[in-house]
Fold this protein.
Amino acid sequence: MAFILPALPYAYDALEPFIDTTTMQIHHGKHHQAYVDNLNKAIAGTANEGKSLEELVKAAGSISPAVRNNGGGHWNHTFFWESLTNKKLDKLPGHIAGGINLIFGSFDAFKEKFANAAMTRFGSGWAWLIVTSDGKLEVTSTPNQDNPLMDVAEHKGTPLLGVDVWEHAYYLKYQNKRADYLAAFWNIINWEKVDQRYAEAK
Ligand code: MN3
């Protein structure tokens, strides 16, 4: 079974004005689709055909650059779409709020650390909130389409939240102002999903 592009869990215009409709259409319909297509090409007729996306991603560094880039791209974008919502919460779910306060001291301190990881990622990549194998929350970042599940990741863990800082994620609306895109990002995070991932990872 070849991989397929998953439908977005909301409409293309659902994240306006924070992420514009055209960016969402191109990002999902063109960029994410290309990762899916190129991943399928990279594994067709090989021993890796039939493996789950997570299996491929976890072993990506020892499989091939094509699987690392496109398997990572498929996994990261699927995860990213599910991390976003237009649904507003009055306050953070207790579980993740407690974890963040415990490790970072306050939500604002976490925000600053996360934004800093996203701002200082040179070129293309992602910033992440992960939970490590010993149950600790950590902020990290990865280049290109790598992620913290990969064998090649410097800081490994289970991703709870991630932000795409490739220019294609924000250039149409924000041009070179990555900081403005990141400021908008806080308005559309699906904290219920993050909280659920945290509960499942612990
Ligand atoms: Mn992207």
Observations:
- The pocket of manganese (III) ion is lined by residues 27, 31, 77, 164, 166, 168-169 (CB under 6 Å).
